[in-house]
């Protein structure tokens, strides 16, 4: 396994579930972290779960909303100014809404698309120069729903297909510039989101 000690990672969705577990694993490997989320209070609460290795600096917290590109721009400026490099970007934040075709209205669908696709795209684009400079890694935490029929969750499934297209195109354009791009597709996992779904 590659030695990650001394590298720096930005993690969205780190206040709970899969994102929090990824952040904790990176922290234990000696990675300096920036945790990005909408609620500073929830990010602060996650510090106790993540911070178990005393020799690694306490994670930095940056407030930003995937639905608000202005806040993402401000967050990216703060991250670039504060970190010597950005080696890893974990796009794990997003939103979920279950509903039939005739359920959620187009405004809700648009909100899901912004949180799950436009937000991660915008943040990745803003941090891409630093990732290229570091020959870094970008990880998109997608969903196994793209491999299923997605009955009752067509709106969410559509956003995950779009996110896959974003990651595929990023890989094809930037892999030869040293940026590695990975999509992972977890199935049902014991997280607060899963409790909400079921």
Question: Mind explaining what this structure looks like?
Answer:
Helix content is 46%, strand content 15%. The chain is α/β, with parallel strands linked by helices and 198 residues long. It has a six-stranded parallel sheet, with helices on both faces. Strand 1, helix 1 (17-28) and strand 2 (32-37) form a beta-alpha-beta unit. Helix 4 runs parallel beside helix 5 (154-174). The longest helix is centred in the middle third of the chain and has 28 residues, at 106-133. It is globular and about 50 Å long. Residues 194-198 have low confidence and may be disordered.
What's the layout of helices and strands?
Blueprint: E1 8-12, H1 17-28, E2 32-37, H2 40-50, E3 60-63, H3 69-82, E4 88-91, H4 106-133, E5 137-141, H5 154-174, E6 180-184, H6 192-197
Parallel strand pairs: 1-2, 1-4, 2-3, 4-5, 5-6
Helix pairs in contact: 3-4, 4-5
In total, how many beta strands?
6
Indicate the multimeric state: single chain
Rg, Cα atoms, Å: 16 Å
Question: Helix-strand pattern, N to C?
Answer: EHEHEHEHEHEH
Shape descriptor reads globular
Number of helices in the DSSP assignment: 6
Helix coverage percent of residues? 40-55%
**pLDDT < 50 runs, ≥5 residues:** 194-198
Structural class: alpha/beta
Largest sheet: 6 strands, parallel
Distance, first to last CA? 36 Å
Which whole number gives the mean pLDDT? Answer: 87
Largest beta sheet: what is the strand line-up?
Answer: 3-2-1-4-5-6
Beta strand %: 5-15%
């Amino acid at each position: 396994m590659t030695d990650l000690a001394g590298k720096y990672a930005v993690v969205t969705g780190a206040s709970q579930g899969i994102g929090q577990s990824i952040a904790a694993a990176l922290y234990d490997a000696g990675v300096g972290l920036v945790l990005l989320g909408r609620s500073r209070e929830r990010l602060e609460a996650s510090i106790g779960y993540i911070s178990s290795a005393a020799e690694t600096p306490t994670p930095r917290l940056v407030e930003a909303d995937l639905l608000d590109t202005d806040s993402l721009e401000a967050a990216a400026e703060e991250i670039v100014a504060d970190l010597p490099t950005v080696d890893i970007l974990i796009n794990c934040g997003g939103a979920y809404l279950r509903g039939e075709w005739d359920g959620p209205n187009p405004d809700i669908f648009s909100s899901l698309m912004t949180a799950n696709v436009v937000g991660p795209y915008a943040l990745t684009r803003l941090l891409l120069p630093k990732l290229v400079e570091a020959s870094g890694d970008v990880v998109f935490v997608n969903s196994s729903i793209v491999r299923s029929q997605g009955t009752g969750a067509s709106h969410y499934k559509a956003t995950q297909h779009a996110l896959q297209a974003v990651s595929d195109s990023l890989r094809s354009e930037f892999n030869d510039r040293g940026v590695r791009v990975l999509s992972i597709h977890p199935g049902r996992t014991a997280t607060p989101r899963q409790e909400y779904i079921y």
